[in-house]
Fold:
Amino acid sequence: MASISRKDLQQLIDANIITTDTADKIEAFFTTKENKAEQQGKLNTVFVILGALLISLSIILFIAHNWDGLNKTAKTVSAFLPLAIAQLLCVFALLYKKESNLWREASAIVLFFAVPASISLISQVYHINGTMQQFLFTWILLTAPLVYLMRSAIIALLLIAVASWYAVAAGYDYYYSDNNVPWLYLMVLVFVAPHYYNYIKQKNDSNYLNWYNWFIPISRLICLGSFQGRTFHSERISYTGYAALLTLFYQIGNNKKASETFFANPYFKLGLIGIIVIFLMLSFENFWNDFQFDKMVFDSAFVYISAILFCTCVYIFIKQNKKLNFRNFNPVEIALYVLVIAIFAGKLTGVFIINGWLLVIALWYILRGSAQNNFALMNLGLLIIATLAVMRFFDDDIPFVWRGFFFLITGIGFFAANYNLIRRRKHLAQKKSL
Structure:
């Protein structure tokens, strides 16, 4: 506590000045007061950040409104005006408000958006041509130092967002050469890594860390395909690469406490949902028509990155499972290796393996949820089976009778499993009451 410590309260108790109950009430009072102050501080940070964004946009709009009536000199001055104001704000924050997170974040945000505004205006005034990739590249290079100079988490998140934009513009643009690989994106991730690591070690209760944990995996999922270029490797390689990335997310998230909220552990959720979605997609026979060895190409960055991700997953799996124990069996962690076997096994065998493993995952969650008295886990398994049943409804190769039978069994399973768990909970509650 900032106002009074537990040690001070203990000294007052030992001196018979206050009782233990009174000390607990004093501690609770100051704790509540500090929590309210912390919440108010977070709210102020949000409002300041929104205010900084609105001010940045307003300056740009004011200049745009009077743009046509200005001469070249006035346009040049107006182009640098937002940049100059933003830099002065950052200098003021560093010299006089360096301990204020509000000032540092707000001034850094204004400067972050002033840079591209100035670049765009100067390019328009002097007719400087360029591509979107070049514009984003310059924006990233000029604003990246703000992450450490202003100690700004918001700028780090915005930098990841702009780098993702750059990767999409460069990697998914098929009008450019095959070698147009967005290496700058990987450089940005490496650049912000120490800042991210600092939050993990020293500020693990910060909301900024939660945003970090969402931005980074989502960005990687969006940008992984941008490293393929124009060359098509066949969907075998694509699915394997994405499955390896999602498995890595699942392994990272699975090491965290299960009691964490959904917002605090996105790696686990994204990894689990992504793996199940890939398996559901591959449960259709039509998805296997393009899986041909003669289309496979192994000379792109995507293949090398996928190989690194796959080897990392294998290393983590071996390290976490040095002693093989059936009790620790987790079909989601093994799904990547099952997928690799399936997509190289052939069309009919692959479809059978994928559908079979989806049922294994579903049954594992049903049994685990039942054993732990957890409705969420049990219904997750039932939901996987139900989704599989719905997808098989659109499969023309399965007769209507078998589809109807599959739906009937799934519906009965939902009712029976939930009824059994509700009855067990009531029985446990009656035992405790006795």
User: Anything to note?
Assistant: Residues 20-65 form the longest helix (46 residues). The mean pLDDT is 76.
